[in-house]
Amino acid sequence: RPGPPAGGGRVGVPNPRRSGKGKMRGRRTTQRRGPLLIVDSDNGIGKAMRNLPGVEVANVNRLNLLQLAPGGHLGRFIIWTQSAFERLEALYGSPTSSSELKKGFHMARPMITSTDINRMIQSDEI
User: Contact 126/120 with Cβ under 8 angstroms?
Assistant: First the structure.
């Protein structure tokens, strides 16, 4: 089959069998997670993506940590629409300004100013 695989990777391949007693409890196969499309308003894109295996559509107003990082594993392929990305500033604000839509919500300010953790650990001051 020429072209990229459907669903963005190994989502469409046959599912591997689960190890352990989960097979007896109705969870025989495991399912890989495909790309996540985040939109501000649906406008029929949910119906368009429904046919693609493994592709999920989420609204930016109802983001879920289990959708963004399923199983606690970071690195899911996330596609943002431009309107959803612009909506994030109004929903959550920034470290300097509060949210416009959520009353009394202030984004937590970053605790670490330097991101080089190895240099900090190996320094003489610590």
Answer: yes
Structure tokens at 88: 């994030």
Handedness of CA 105, 109, 111, 112 (dihedral sign): positive
CB atoms within 10 A of CB 17: 10
State how far the alpha carbon of 26 is from the alpha carbons of 12, 19, 22, 29, 30, in Å: 21, 12, 7, 9, 11
Distance, CA of 84 to CA of 65 (rounded, Å): 16
Residue type, 105: F
Q: What is the pLDDT of residues 53-92, one digit of tens each?
A: 889 999 999 998 999 998 888 888 999 999 998 898 889 8
Which uninterrupted H or E stretch holds 29? none
